[in-house]
Specification:
This protein is of the alpha/beta class and 370 residues long. The chain has 14 helices and 13 strands.
Length: 370
């Protein structure tokens, strides 16, 4: 029996899309599946997260929102991008369908480029979408009142609605306009805590406290000059943020010599921003979090409410981070005992079972389907 060809399209707008998708792919039984991934996410990240062999096609189908930095949407540039993208949208859909025919795809799994879903509908290829958000509703929040914004929104919404299912892992933003929405459990990966090994490799005392800084790197200027210094507290930064060691308590992430998830599970606190990936992973690994809020981002109230219910978290603003006025919040989190029950992150398995079931029902046929 020839293996079924599963095409996975992943948005590169933030790494949370990769985290969600990788967890689902890792839960698949790959004995009869051939995997192709299309994404502009870094190949190293994809191969670190996804355990199965796959062919990678560097390919961008969506742009999400154009960002000033990791926290602020550039609304005008976003609208310019969508205006250009939708100017020849019907032709783009035909090209997307032809690409599926050329690749001989049996099924599309998207998180969450909508063009491939529209192409799959045109080509008669089964498709599932999965994400805690969708670009149609995010776009609507920022741009729907602009000229032709409502038209673009409806085209995006129709593409998402064309999939057999749009899977919404808890906690997702509401998507009331979708007719195919299906709620599933949270998706979050568990790391393996290796605290003693980590402290030893970094030549730190057993009493040292480790803070993982995971704010994302899209144009962010980290205020290292005002960063608080707390006795016996060490800050682990992404390598691209600090090229050298301006302070003894600043540590490069690569020095930890652990996978990202094992590193998080080995730390005492994580600093993040509003976003599905790290917020759910912090809860899954029972790591207290300091979360920089994004007040205008549509997911914020739903993610933050869920995080408050299931995890130990304090919220702050980027202005407080820039001023270095968050040392007391870190101290509070370091002293806090985890009092919440563990979550059951079964969403990846639920999604994988549905994909497996749909793939088993497909029959390959590529003769003039559109």
């Amino acid at each position: 029996m020839n293996p079924k060809h599963l095409l996975v399209d992943i948005s590169a707008h933030g790494f949370g899309h990769v985290a969600q998708t990788a967890a689902v792919l890792n839960a698949l039984d790959m004995q009869q599946i051939r995997l192709t991934i299309r994404s502009k996410a870094p190949e190293a990240l994809l191969r670190a997260r996804i355990q199965h062999p796959f062919k990678l096609i560097p390919y961008q189908q969506d742009n999400g929102m154009v960002m000033h930095d990791a926290l602020r949407v550039d609304v005008l540039e976003t609208m310019r991008w969508y205006k250009a993208f939708h100017a020849d949208y019907d032709e783009r859909k035909r090209e997307a369908a032809l690409a599926l025919e050329k690749l001989k795809v049996d099924m599309v799994f998207a998180n969450i480029p909508y063009l491939s879903l529209a192409g799959a509908r045109l080509a008669g290829v089964p498709a599932i979408a999965l994400c805690s958000l969708n670009w149609a509703d995010i776009f609507k929040h920022y741009c729907a009142q602009m000229p032709r914004g409502a038209v673009y929104y409806q085209e995006m919404l129709a593409a998402y609605d064309s999939a057999q299912y749009f899977l919404q892992p808890e906690p997702s933003m509401p998507m009331p306009e979708l007719n195919n929405a299906k709620a599933i459990a949270p998706i979050a990966q568990a790391g393996i805590a290796q605290r003693e090994q980590l402290l030893e490799s970094l030549a730190l005392p057993d009493t040292a406290k480790l803070i993982l800084v995971a704010l994302g790197g899209i144009g962010m200027q980290y205020p290292l000059d005002t960063w608080p210094a707390i006795p016996n507290v060490y800050w682990i930064f992404p390598d691209e943020i600090i090229e050298a060691h301006p302070r003894r308590d600043f540590i490069l992430q690569s020095e930890a010599e652990l996978s990202y998830m094992d590193l998080m599970a080995s730390c005492d606190v994580v600093i993040t921003k509003t976003g599905y990936g790290t917020q759910t992973e912090a809860v899954m690994n029972r790591i207290p979090a300091l979360c920089v809020q994004r007040p205008d981002w549509p997911e914020t109230p739903f993610l933050d409410a869920w995080h408050s219910e299931h995890g130990e978290v304090e919220f702050t603003t980027w202005q407080q981070i820039q001023a270095g006025a968050f040392g007391e919040l870190i101290q509070s989190l370091l002293e806090r005992a985890w009092a919440k029950p563990s979550i059951q992150a079964k969403g990846a398995v639920q999604a994988a079972e549905l994909i497996q079931q749909m793939l088993s029902q497909t029959t390959s046929c590529y003769t003039a389907r559109f």
